[in-house]
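Example 449.
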Amino acid sequence: MDEQKKISRRKALKYIGVGVLGAAGAYAAVRFTPLNDKLRESLAKGDVRPITTRKDKIFGDQISLLAFGCMRFPTRRNEEGTMVIDRDQTRQLLGYAYANGINYFDTAYNYHNGESEVVTGEILKDFPRESFCLATKMPTWLVTDLERGKELFREQLQKCQVDYFDFYLLHALSSIEDYNRAYRDTGVLEYLKEEKAAGRIRRLGFSFHANEETMDYLLEQYPWDFVMIQMNYLDWEVQNARYMYEQIEKRGIQCLVMEPLRGGSLTRLNSEALGILKEADPKSTPAQWAFRYAASHANVLTVLSGMNRMDHLQENINTFRKFKPLRKSEYEVIARALEAYRKISQIPCTACAYCMPCPYGVDIPLVFSTYNEMVARDMVPDINGPRDEDFIRKGQEFLSYLEKTIPVEHQSHNCTDCGVCKPHCPQEIDIPAEMRRINEILGALTMGY
Ligand code: SF4
Ligand code: SF4
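Predicted structure in complex with iron/sulfur cluster:
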C-alpha cells in the first residue's frame, strides 16, 4: 500500500472511529469492499456476512447491492437562515457507508440546489478514486444546445473533483420529445459518447420517469450500459415497472433501482398491511421487506437509498449484509400486504421535489408526506361521515399534527390552484387537485364539528 492510500484509509476510519488498520487488505479497484477491523474480525469468525455485491456486466466490477443516494443529505440552517447540507453529519454517514462496503454513490446536478455534487466530491476525494463508483446525471431540462451540454458536463467534473464518472445518466427522461430535444437534436448524446471514448464516462445510461412507449423508443436509441428505473412492490403494477424491468432485462442491459421505498411511503404502511408483514416475520421492518423485494430481481445491479440517518443506514447495511432473496411464500406475503395497503388512498409522492418551488410557498412534498403519514396512522377524518366522537378525535389529531409538522406559510391552504407544479411531477400526480382535497378536509374541520 503506498503512503497516500494509507493516509486515505486512516481518514476513512477516522470518520467511523475504529482506529487504523494494519497493512492487510489494500485497496484494489472497485472489486474491493472496504471493511473495518471489528467487521473483519467478525467475518473471520463467521459471525456476519459481508455486504452483498453484484458483478457489473461492463467491467466486471463488484458493486455493492445497496447504493448511497446523495439526494437527501442531513441539512442545517446556516447564519443567513438558509437550509444547507450538514457537512459533518454527511461525512459521518458517507464514511460509515464506505467503511462498511457501500461503493456506489449517486448524486445529480440539481440535488440540494447543486450542493450535493460539491459535498459528495469533497468527502469522496479522501478515498482512493478506484475504490468507489461515482454516478451523476445531466440535468435534461437545462440542456438547450451542444455548448450548454458541454458546459454542464465539465462543471460536474469540477464540482465532484474527479476526472471521470463511473456511471453517467441522462436525468429523469420523461418523454420521447424530451429526449430528442435535449440529446438527439442538440448533438449532446454524440458528445457524451465522445466523453465515454475519452474515458471520462465509464458507463452511460439514463434515469426514467415515463411510459412504455418512451421506454421502447429510448432502448432503441443507443446500446446503453444501464438504465435506472423506479421499482418497488407498489410500482411493479401501478407504474408498470414490471414492463420496464422486463424490457431492460430482455436486451441484456443492467438495471439500477431508485425509489425502492417509494419516497418512504412503503415504510409507513397502514396497520393492516403492517400486521401481515409482522405476522410473517416479526423481526423484519417494512423497509427490509421493500429492499429485499427490489434486490431479489436478478438483473438489478444496485438499489439506491437516500439515507440521512445513521440508524437507517445501519439497518439497511444489515439488510444487504445478510441479503437473502425473497422466497415464493414471501412474495405472497408482500402481495397480501399490498392489497391491504392499497385499500387506503395515499398520495403517490416520492418527495423528488421536481415540482418545487411553488410560487405561493406551498411545500408540496412536505404537505403530501405529512398527509400520507396521517393516512397511515388513521388520523384522517371522514368528512362525508357522521360528526361523531371518532370524527372529532381524528379532526383534532389531524389539525394538531399538521400545525406542528408544516410551517403555516408552507401549508396547503396557500395553494392558489395556479397549476405551475403539475407538469413537473414524474408521478403524474394532479397536485392542485390533491391540495384541494386536503383543503376540503381542513375546511370541514375549521368550520366546526
Ligand atoms: S397549484 Fe398550488 S401547489 Fe402547485 S404551484 Fe400552484 S399554488 Fe403551488
Ligand atoms: S408531487 Fe410529484 S414532483 Fe412533487 S415531490 Fe411529489 S412526486 Fe415529486
